[in-house]
Amino acid sequence: MALFPRTPRAARLPGDVVSRMERFGRFEFDPVGTDIDASDVWGELQAPFLPFAQSDPDGFARSLADAVLPAGGFALFGAARTMWNLVGSDFSSPAYDAVRMAALEFFRANGVPSNRLSADDWRSWQENRSEPWLVGRPRPSSEEARIAPLLPGELRRVAQITSAPDSNVVYVAAAHDGRFAAVVDARTSDTDPARGRFDWMSADTLDDLYGRIGDAFQTPVHWVADELRPFIPLPPARF
């Protein structure tokens, strides 16, 4: 039985629509971490759906929802993003809303932190759900944290974001105003490999700064110093 009333246009969806939506969902979630060639995404995973989406947006949304809701997984996210891409960011329908919320529930069930969501998806969750996204462990107290004091002029490395040789690296240091600062060492731009450093955030105490860094990360990044790790509230996502 169809989850939403079918229309004659439902036959326009190809038989492999779920696998296409699953691939597109994985690409949209982590384009760098997939083996999907970005140059193939539009031609293979989006353009074939464009005539249906533009000629009958509601019918397209209903047909896509019927296909992906029973399948679950990344196909949900791929379908939600496809509707958003091909019909429009202001599109709304019961089918689209059901797929979008199911995709968010899938991410939440797998421990994906809220900082991996788009601003629009995060706003939709907050408007439609009363429960928290994820509940992490509380910050350790100053006594529990046991952070070694910074030496004068010390720039302490506390995190590396990815395994890439040019990954951003986070340091902590004493600021000139008596506070403590997180400093990011990163490439100047995507086209300029020269590196530079900039202040990211600051706090009155070192343990508060570690807490703010942990809240920003939400889950562990590629490498985290032992004294920072207790301040990261959530375990790694399951994918």
Radius of gyration: 22 Å
Low-confidence segments: 7-11
Query: Total helix count?
Result: 9
- Largest sheet, described in full? 5 strands, antiparallel
Strand order of the largest sheet: 4-3-2-1-5
Distance between the termini: 31 Å
Strand content: 5-15%
Helical percentage: 25-40%
Number of strands: 5
Structural class: alpha+beta
Mean pLDDT: 93
Helix/strand order: HHHHHHHHEEEEHE
Shape: elongated
Detailed description of the structure:
Helix content is 40%, strand content 13%. Helix 4 runs parallel beside helix 6 and helix 5 packs antiparallel against helix 6 (94-109). It has 9 helices and 5 strands, in the order H-H-H-H-H-H-H-H-E-E-E-E-H-E. It has a 5-stranded antiparallel beta sheet with strand order 4-3-2-1-5. With 239 residues, it is α+β, with helices and mostly antiparallel strands. The protein has helices at 17-29, 38-46, 50-55, 57-68, 74-86, 94-109, 119-128, 142-145, 206-217, and strands at residues 156-160, 169-174, 180-187, 195-203, 223-224. Mean pLDDT is 93; it is low at 7-11. The radius of gyration is 22 Å and the shape is elongated. The longest helix is centred in the middle third of the chain and has 16 residues, at 94-109.
Q: Which key phrases capture this entry?
A:
single chain, about 240 residues, alpha+beta, five-stranded antiparallel sheet, 9 helices, 5 strands, about 15% strand
Topology summary:
Layout lengths: L16 H13 L8 H9 L3 H6 L1 H12 L5 H13 L7 H16 L9 H10 L13 H4 L10 E5 L8 E6 L5 E8 L7 E9 L2 H12 L5 E2 L15
Antiparallel strand pairs: 1-2, 1-5, 2-3, 3-4
Helix pairs in contact: 1-2, 1-5, 4-5, 4-6, 5-6
